[in-house]
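User: We ran a pulldown and think these components assemble together. Before we commit to crystallization trials, I'd like a predicted model of the whole complex to look at. Sequences follow.
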Amino acid sequence: MSKVNELFNHSIKVTNVGLETFYQTVVEQNVSAVHVEWRPIAGGNPKLAALLAKLNTPEIEEANKKAFDIMNNAEPVLTDVKYAYEVIDGMDKYTIGHAGPPLAWEDMCGPLQGAILGAIMYEGLSSSLEESEEIVKAGKIKFRPNHSMGAVGPMTGMVTYSMPLWEVTNTSYGNKAYCPFNEGLGKVMRFGANGPDVIERLKWLETSLGPAMKKALALSGPISLKVIVAKALAMGDEMHQRNTGASSLFVREIMKYLVQVVDNKEELFKITEFVTGNDQFFLNIAMATGKAICDPVKNVPNSTVVTTLSRNGTNFGIKISALGEQWFEAPVNQPKGLYFPGYSAEDANPDIGDSTIIETFGIGGFAMGSAPAVVRFVGASSVDEAIAYSKEMQDICVGLSPHFVIPTMNFVGTATAIDIRKVVETGSLPVINTGMAHKKPGIGQVGAGIVNPPMDCFVKALEAFGEKYD
Amino acid sequence: MIHNVIKHNAYFDSVTLMLFSSKLGGIDGVSEAAVMMGTDHNIELMKSSGILSEELAGKVSANDLVIGIKAVSQDVIDLAIKTLEEQFENKAKSSEGSGAIRVKTVDAAVKKMEGLNFAIISVPGRFAAAETMKCLKNNMNVLLFSDNITIDEENELKDYAIKNELLMMGTDCGTAIINGVALGFANVVRRGNIGLVAASGTGLQELTVVIDKLGGGISQAIGTGGRDVKKEIGGKMMLFALDALINDPETQVIGIVSKPPAQEIMVKILDKVKNISKPVVACFLGGDPSLVEGTHTIASETIEEAAKQLVTLSKGELSVNLNSFTEEELNALVADEVDKFQGQKNLRGLYTGGTLAYEAMLILNKKVGNVYSNIAINKELSLKDVEVSQENTILDMGEDYFTDGMPHPMIEPKLRSERIKKEASDPQTAVILLDCVLGYGSHPDPASSIALAVEQAKALQGERHITYIASVCGTEKDPQVLSDQVEKLLNIGIIVLPTNAQAAQLAALILERL
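Assistant: Here's a predicted model for the assembly, 984 residues in total across the polymer chains.
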C-alpha cells in the first residue's frame, strides 16, 4: 500500500504556509494544525537567500551543535574578586575599558564620554572634568572594548585600573571572565554620571566592598552560578532587567561569610545596606557568568553561533564563533519602552552596554516568559506577549537549554545559541531587555524597554562567513 | 493630497494587503490607495501611480509595509489611516486567537508538532517551490495554492512527490477534501464512497456539492492543478491520484473532472482506468466525447450529469430530484420573462468560479452559439476588450486580468459587483447569469454582496427588465449555509437554480426565444 493510502487511514495534521484563512479553515474543522507565519527568506533578498541555501549544510549544523554543547556544558562559578590591574593584560592607569565594539572619542555618545571623564578623575589623573577632557584630547587615553580584555560592563561599562572585578571561572573549560561591581541605581557612572558622589561611591567599592567580598568568597569557596540563575528564573527573574530573586539568593549565600570578615559593625551595616538595597546587584555577576559561558564557544570552525552581542551607544557589534574576534557592526537602535516620570523618548540615549551578554547565552529578553513582573517595566503589553517573545527566540536558536527553564512555559528550556543563519532567514531578531540612559552625561537611568540589534550586523557576519566557507 | 506611512519590518501577505487596499479605496474622498510590501516592483508601481514620494521610495526595504493614500482632504486621510489601524488591530486580534500554534518557518513547524503529514502552501510563487520541497522532504502531502511556478519546478516537485508516494496537488490548486477535511476552497459535504480527481477548482467544488445534494458522499477529493493535464506536466499527478483511489478500499466509484486535457494525456488517463473493477465517470469539459466512447469510462457533458452518474453508481439508484421547477413551470417562467423584455437580446454571465464559467460557456455555445469570453476556446470568440462585453458574453472574473493586484472575486466580490452594475446599464442586456460559491475559503456572505449589487443595478436599469439567474455552489453545512444564501438571492428577485448547468440551460431557453 502506498504512503498516500496510509494518509487516507490517518488523521491529517496540517502545516499551513502562507494565507492565514486556510489555517483557520482547518482549525474550525478540529484538525491539528500549525500556522507558519511565513515571510520571504531574508526579507526577499535573492542574494542572501542564495547564500543561505549554500550555507544549509550538515557540516554547519554539526558545528553549531558543538557550539551549543559548549555553551550548555559550561560550569560558571564565582571564584574571587580581583583588581583590574591584577588580571587584565596591558592594564594601566591610562587604559579605559568600555562597553561595545571599539570606537573613537569623537564618535562616542554623551553618557559614554561623561563616564570616561569621570573615570579619569576616579583614577586620580585629573581633578576636574575639564582637565579630564584635555587628557583625552591630548590622546593620552587608550580606549579598549571590555570584550577584548576578558571583561564586560553594563551600560557605559567602565573598567579601569583600580576597579574591583567579580571573577567568574568556567570550570569546564578553565577560562575566567570579569565584571565590575554594580553601583546601584540613580546617578551612577554606568549611566554616564560623573559627579563627586559617583566617584566617592566607586572608591568605596574599591576600598571596602571589594575587599570584603574577596575575603567572604575566600571563606565560602566557589559559588555555583548556574544554580543561582536556574533558581532565579523560577523566582520571576530574567537576569537582565530583573535580578530581584538572584540578588536575594546571592546575599543569602554570602551574608554568613561577610559577617565573619568585616570587623567594623558600622561598615558591615553599610555593606549590608548597599547589597540588600539593590535589586540589580546580581546583574554584574550574571554578566560575568555570560562572558565565562560564551568565550569558550569562540573559534569552533564552521559555526555560525553568536558569541557576543554588545553595544557602545553608537554601534551594535556582534561576533560569531567561526570568525573569532572579528566584530560585525551597525548603528544601534533606540529601545522602546517606558520612562520614569518626567522623562520621555526625547531624553533617551541609544542602546548601550555589554549587558546583552545575558541574551547571548539565552536569558534576559529570551527568558522574558519567565518574568511576568518585568513585562510592564519594559513596556510589553501582556504576559502572553512576553511568552511569545521567548517562543520566537526558539526560531533563531540552535536548541533549548537543559539547565535554564521557564516555569510559565511548562518548564521548556530557554532558547540557546543564536544562529545568524536563522536570524537572517526568518527576519526575527534577538530580543533584548534593557535599561535606558539619559542622553546627556551625568543624569542617569530614565527608563527601561525592549530593543533589537540591527539586522545589518547579522547580514554582514553571514556574508563574511559565506566568503570563507566553501 | 498624498499621504505616506511606512511601517518597518511588518510583513503581511498580499491577499490581506489587497483587502486592506480595497477597504481604503472604498472610503469616500479617497481617489487612490495602496498598502503594499516595499518590494522593488511594488515601489515602482506606487511611484508610477503617484502615491509614493521619491524621497520615501529610497528608504524602504522589502520587509517594510508601505502605505500610500491619495485623497481630497486631510480629514479623509485621517479617516483612512484610522480605518487601516482598525484593520491591523483586527488582524492582530485574530492572530492571537486562543491556542493558535504559530511558528516562522517550516522547520520550526516540524519541531513544533509531531506527525505533520499535510501542507497547504500559498506563499508568493517565486518562493513557493522551495517551501514545497521542504514540506515534501518532511514527508508531507502538499496542496500548492501558489501559482507563477515554472514548469520545471512543478515537474521537479511532482517527480519527487511521486517517488516518495506523496500527493503534490497544484500548482494553482485551490480545492481538495482529504479524509473529510475541506482544504483551501472547499465545501462541507457528506463522506461516502465516491473518490474524485480534478484538474479544476470550482469544478471539483460543484461536483462534490451536487453529489452531496443528490445524497451521495465523498471518500477523497484530490486536486491536481489545471496545468497537470497539459503536455508539459503530462498528467502525472492525475495518474498518481487515480492509482491512490484505485487502491483505496473506501472508494467504490471514481469521478474525474477537468477542462480538456491534452489528447495524449486523456488517452493515458483512460488507459490507466481501463482494466479496473471500479466504475469511472469522467467530465472532460469540452473534451472530445469520441475519445471516451468504447472505454471503461462513462462520459458526462456537464458536472451535474457526472454527479448523477456517480451517485447512481454509488447507491445503485438516484432517489433525489434536484430540479426546483417542473418542465411546465420552467416553460411558463421562460415565457413570462421573455414577455418583459423591451427588445434586449444579450446574455452577460459574470463568474467568480473559473470552471463554472467554462461550463456555462460550453452549454450556451452549444444551444445559442457564439458566446464571447475572456476564456474562449476559439480565438474568434475572445473578447477584444475584457472591460467591454460583446453580444452574449461570459466572463471568468478570477482570470489574471482581473486578479492582478486584486483579491480573487470568490474572496472579495467587489469587482464582480461593479461589473453587474455596468452590464445592467447596457441597454442590450436581457439576462445576467451569476455564480455564488460558498464553502471554506470563500467570502463569508457572497449572496449579500450579489443582492446589494443587483439592488443598485436595478436602479440603473430603470424601466428595462433584466432576468437575473444564479446558482449557489454550496451545502447546508457550509459556513455560509446554503438556504440562507439562496433566500437572500430570491428576496432580491433572482431566479436560483440548484446547479450551474441548470442555470446556464435556463439562460439558454430564454435566449433562444429572443
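The two ends of chain A are 42 Å apart (CA to CA). That may be worth checking against your pulldown data before setting up trials.

User: Thanks, that helps.
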